[in-house]
Design goal:
This protein is α+β, with helices and mostly antiparallel strands and 243 residues long. The protein has 2 domains: 120 residues, 2-Layer Sandwich (BirA Bifunctional Protein, domain 2), CATH 3.30.930.10; 81 residues, CO dehydrogenase flavoprotein, C-terminal domain (Enolase-like, domain 1). The protein contains 10 helices and 8 strands. A 4-stranded antiparallel beta sheet has the order 1-2-3-4, with helices on one face. A 4-stranded antiparallel beta sheet has the order 5-6-7-8, sandwiched between helices. The longest helix is centred in the N-terminal third of the chain and has 16 residues. It is elongated, with a radius of gyration of 22 Å. The protein starts with a helix and ends with a helix. The model has no long low-confidence stretch (mean pLDDT 89).
Length: 243
């Protein structure tokens, strides 16, 4: 985390020079100070003898298109995903009304990182550029983009601390469909549909820790009070966690 914090400083100054007051949010997010929305993500790791730090400056973002790209189990989940992206993410153009050019951003980043490190400008090896071009062609090809991997996104991380989950579980008596929004480890919102009347359960889960044992305890309490026509605890758990 210390490395993330140190290497985020030039990025934070770069955003501020573009007119957006941001702050570092552990462990890897950059967020807008005024509204808490994520505006940048970062990553780091060891490759051979090198420590590699990567990140992105979010200049413009299409939340509707992003939501459409996910393969989701239910279409209703797609709209909740789009809404959550809109509420929790931001970008430079949205915050300032202006879209900087790539050249502007590059110049600012080079200057700010040069204030932190004694950098020397070197030419990128031709082999590295060729490999980057090859990987770009591969990962932006129709074959890769339209490949059906069979994967369905039942849990989506919106930003650090915010997740959306969707689960569908078939029981002997019917189907349970659950969509859960989790913020900072606690249930923020629950939508339950299917073949059972479980509206009171959705309300009861709001504010509960999303740890499995905490959810199970609340489900056991609900099932004890509502025995007739209510699914069992294990069935409800499978629907909530997408097991």
């Amino acid at each position: 985390e210390d490395s993330y914090k140190l290497l985020s400083e030039p990025v934070i100054r770069a955003y501020r020079r573009m007119g957006v007051d941001v702050l570092y949010r552990p462990v890897s997010d950059i967020a807008v100070r005024s509204n808490g929305r994520k505006i940048g993500g970062q990553g780091a790791g060891d490759i051979g003898s090198c420590f590699v730090f990567v990140g992105g400056i979010l200049l413009r973002f299409d939340t509707k298109l992003m939501a459409e790209l996910f393969k989701v189990p239910e279409e209703s989940f797609r709209e909740r995903l789009r809404t959550s992206l809109e509420e929790n993410l931001s970008w430079v153009e949205r915050e300032t009304g202006r879209l900087p050019t790539y050249g502007e951003v590059e110049d600012i980043l080079v200057e700010e990182f040069s204030n932190l490190f004694d950098l020397e400008e070197e030419e990128i090896p031709r082999e590295a550029i060729s490999l980057a071009d090859e990987l770009k062609r591969k990962f932006t090809s129709r074959k890769t983009l339209l490949e059906d991997t069979g994967r369905r996104h039942r849990a989506v991380k919106i930003r650090e601390g915010v997740f959306l989950r969707s689960g569908v579980h078939k029981t002997e008596k019917g189907v349970i469909k659950v969509e859960v929004s989790v913020r900072e480890g606690r249930v923020e919102k629950v939508v339950i549909s299917g073949d059972f009347e479980l509206g009171d359960l959705a309300d009861a889960l709001v504010g509960v820790s999303f740890e499995r044992e905490s959810i199970k305890e609340k489900l056991e309490e609900f099932v004890r009070k509502n025995k007739d026509g209510t699914p069992g605890v294990e069935d409800l758990l499978r629907a909530i966690y997408g097991d």
